[in-house]
Amino acid sequence: MLCGEGLFEPLHAAVSDTILKRLGSGNAQARILDAGCGEGSHLSGIRDNIVRNAGRPPLTVGLDISRDGIGAATAYANAIWCVGDIAACPFAGGQFGFILNMLSPANYAEFRRLMTADGMVIKVIPERDYLKELRGALYGGLPMRTFANDRTLQLFRENFRQTDAKRVRYRFPLDKQLLEPLLRMTPLSWRVTEERLQQVLAMSLPEITIDLMILTGEK
Length: 219
Fold this sequence. Notes:
By secondary structure, this protein is α/β, with parallel strands linked by helices. It is built from eight helices and seven strands; from the N terminus they run αβαβαββαβααβααβ. It has one domain (9-130, 147-174, 209-218): Vaccinia Virus protein VP39 (Rossmann fold, 3-Layer(aba) Sandwich), CATH 3.40.50.
């Protein structure tokens, strides 16, 4: 529902643009693995952007350990969806020119194994203002850990030669019907009581901030 309403369209456009620039004007078909694809909407949105702008559809594969997530992903008929662990991916090595890892845990040893020699890994991580309105509503005056993604950045740079870092930040109008799926999606709500969730659902949040960093790297 969230992606269908356009919540992540600017992110999908930025990631697909990164892939298209990498492909250049050649005729080779892109082979893309979304490692930790969840319910598939990110990979589907990125694929649709590539098709609109390049014509030739890429081969897209989504992998997630959640059977429920993959079950939901099958609503998108434009990819191969697989239940599996990103720590032991069920694919031969050197098969993918692009590996996506979007707001999800990573296994960089497996990513390196699966990438082609000239492949690219694209990792999306939250920045400081990501869903800040929701954080404020959920936690109010309660103490929260200071946001930091330094360790995530360090691990990425230890495993890949970073080629770019692009920040995508925008505000999105939040209809009342989108608040609950957003709450259920984000890990911000996982340690909050159901009572507190219901209190937040009764609030009015007119907009939400999306603030993400797109990291790209090579072997």
